[in-house]
């Protein structure tokens, strides 16, 4: 395994980490369950190969009530019985938003409509911001080879 290239960029720019954490705090108060947000964070981080965020997302999901079955199987959520319809909708949206360039219609109507069935506009906003912040952290950690467990 290669070593870290440099410290996390958000830690090097004054106020950047605090701004990201403030946004994370605002998201947490918007009405989406912390477990759903953590599972979404975990899934996006798995897709992006971000070790620190996968480790942190798994721990966060467990802290917020996700069982080991959910945490262990989030990458295969479609093939397992351990996720609610709401969680499935959030995970589908997470995958589409994280993989924007993988298809011409980045977030297909059926994915959006399913999420909108389970979340109101404020909750959708929180979920989208959660996915965006997760992807931001992933894009800071992965290229600089941040290591899990070194927070």
Automatic annotation (TrEMBL):
NCBIfam families: ahpD_dom. This is Carboxymuconolactone decarboxylase family protein. It holds the Pfam family CMD. It comes from the Bacteria. Residues 14-95 form the Carboxymuconolactone decarboxylase-like domain.
